[in-house]
Amino acid sequence: MKAAETTRNHVTIERVFDAPVELLWRIWTEPEFIMQWFGGDPNGTVISAEMNLSVGKVYKIKFADSNGSEHTAFGEFTLVEKAKRLHYSWEWLSEPGKISNVEVEFLDMGDQSKLVLVHKNLHPDSSHEYQVGWTNAINKIDPIAKRRVKR
User: Fold this and answer.
1) Closest of 12, 7, 8, 9 to residue 134, by C-alpha
2) Cα(125)–Cα(36) distance, rounded to whole angstroms?
3) Per-residue pLDDT tens for 21-77?
4) Which residue segments constitute the domains of the chain, with CATH numbers given?
5) Which backbone phi and psi does 79 adopt, to 5 degrees?
6) N or C end: fewer C-beta atoms under 10 angstroms in the chain?
């Protein structure tokens, strides 16, 4: 199941994964997993992922597109409820001061889990394609989850 909605200042994406919610949480929050999926270019790579997963603490993720362009996203965690909800600010190193907010909900469905991502307060002058970027990044999670579940 896929659902996506975009308005001028927010993006919403819903996806169901064939993986338990605890695994989906780990894939979203642990650097070793983030290194495997983050970034909107299907052939891009993650250069570094730093996470201090506590309210008031920060994260920083640097990644490169297949054309060599590099991007750095960073922000602060505002809500951390393990395997349930994660809220954080979002800012690009290349677009200082254009701060938006990401809210991710993890819903336990037994052997499956549902991810609901809302990226809101998007700056109208941002050069980033949030709908495409998040969709492509989230598409990379499914094979990671399937490999982990089969172990």
Assistant:
1) 12
2) 29
3) 999 999 999 999 999 999 999 999 999 999 999 999 999 999 999 999 999 999 999
4) 2-150 (3.30.530.20)
5) -155, 130
6) C
